[in-house]
Amino acid sequence: MTTKNIYKHSILILDFGSQYSPLIARRVRELGIYCKLYPWNVSKEKIILFNPKGIILSGSPESATLFNAPCISEYVFDAGVPVLGICYGMQIMAMQLGGKVEISNKCEFGHKQVKIEKDITLLRDIQDNISFDGKKLLDVWMSHTDKVTLLPPNFINVASTENCKFAIIANIYKNFYGLQFHPEVTHTTQGISILKRFIFDICHCNSEWISVNIIDHMVETIRHQVGNDKVILGISGGVDSAVTAILLHRAIGDNLVCVFIDNGLLRLNEACQIKNIFKKIFGLKILHVQAEKRFLKSLSGVVDPELKRKIIGRIFIEIFEEEANKIRGVKWLAQGTICSDMIESSVSITPITNIIKSHHNVGGLPKKLKLMLIEPLKELFKDEVRKIGVELGLPDDIIYRHPFPGPGLAIRILGNVTKEYADLLRIADAIFIEELLIANLYNKISQAFAVFIPVRSVGVMGDKRKYEWIIALRAIETIDFMTAKWVNLPYEFLSYVSNRIINEAQGISRVVYDISSKPPATIEWE
Ligand code: XMP
């Protein structure tokens, strides 16, 4: 089988530290084009190696007017490919090519209207409105204080706003373009159309970065990489490990051995569901390890959230090692690591000085097991992983399921974890999720779950007094899980869910709804 070269038509994004840089990458990938974010000071050799069809320069919180402002490698202008500067990217390009940038006394922030004075390929057939004097208008999103005040030689002015004479500039001979606004944000209605013109009509890219091609390429690469060796993979039921499993299975069949550790802290029927999907539907080889007792025993009497996380992480690694040692001839450990938006961007990374929670995942495994590491999804964003999951035939249940933390229900049961609490929490959580699905709310929110509060409260049912536990419900909306807003669920909905939980989960007398956003609260309660 010959696979398409998914990296042949690629765009390089030079990151000057804008909050929107990862969004530019997302937009380009959505158009079916491979792209990568590199820090602004990446070496010429790395750019040559990447061999892009075009280069995009991101925005920045910096000012191009400062002496030591981050600048564009001269090689970018000699690379012989089109360049698109966005906001700061346009200003620093103008400055370096002989124009002028000044600090303005009026900053432009938010929605603005851009009037197009000259029609160029970048804007062909693109408009939102027409002005009284017959000029094309665009609704765009601006966020700048500095502005270009003198064009570099061979540049023309293409469009202006009330306060910004040079809102779009171009050197059409060299194919260098500058946009003072942000085409990557959805508030710029024609933003995607402009990026399309740049990528397809100016850089002449073809969309090869699409799920079927990515899958073919990955399957081939995995086969080439591991040959006839055995690979071990821990599956959790999350979309990343699921997609990794199916891809590997497609590539190497039964040489893939999956380990599924049931820690007794999973959601209702989750273990069955996982076995059913992976074993029965996809025919994967799965070692199902029943370890509820071992986890609960080690957690008994432990109330500190960090300690709970550490214990769970340690036992997980112990069990995984035991299972790996039982399989003869295994040489590779597969992981479902995906590309975090910032991975290649050294400018935007802030040092972590204060660890709020130590997230448990299997990151500690490779060194301990002395296995070679294979991470097929390393270059993909979450939405790309989901699209590939759909293409591979994974059910929606797995693909669009809300995230679930590695330590599972242990960090949703406050303090001491017991089987009684976990069983009650599972029922309450399942009712909440079931009702969200029925009410068509589940896919509109980012994460929802129930929390067990081990405090007794008085209630009355029939004529009988109850003195039982409390459940809290949490639903949040977020883009990146770094900040989150609690969801304003309808009162009638909450009331119905509360009623069902108190009636069906014997041992719960009260249900409360969490109205804390992040920050100051975190998403999980522990
Ligand atoms: P917090 O509670 O930190 O949660 O606001 C942010 C997101 O991370 C998930 N989370 C975890 N995921 N291991 C994980 O794999 C963990 O230890 C862990 N702790 C929190 C949480 O569910 C939310 O989506």
Automatic annotation (TrEMBL):
It catalyses: XMP + L-glutamine + ATP + H2O = GMP + L-glutamate + AMP + diphosphate + 2 H(+). One of its GO terms (molecular function) is ATP binding. GO terms for cellular component: cytosol. Keywords: ATP-binding, Glutamine amidotransferase, GMP biosynthesis, Ligase, Nucleotide-binding, Purine biosynthesis, Transferase. Pathway: Purine metabolism; GMP biosynthesis; GMP from XMP (L-Gln route): step 1/1. Pfam families: GATase, GMP_synt_C, NAD_synthase. Residues 209-401 form the GMPS ATP-PPase domain. This is GMP synthase [glutamine-hydrolyzing]. It comes from Candidatus Ishikawaella capsulata Mpkobe. The lineage of its organism: Bacteria, Pseudomonadati, Pseudomonadota, Gammaproteobacteria, Enterobacterales. The gene is guaA.
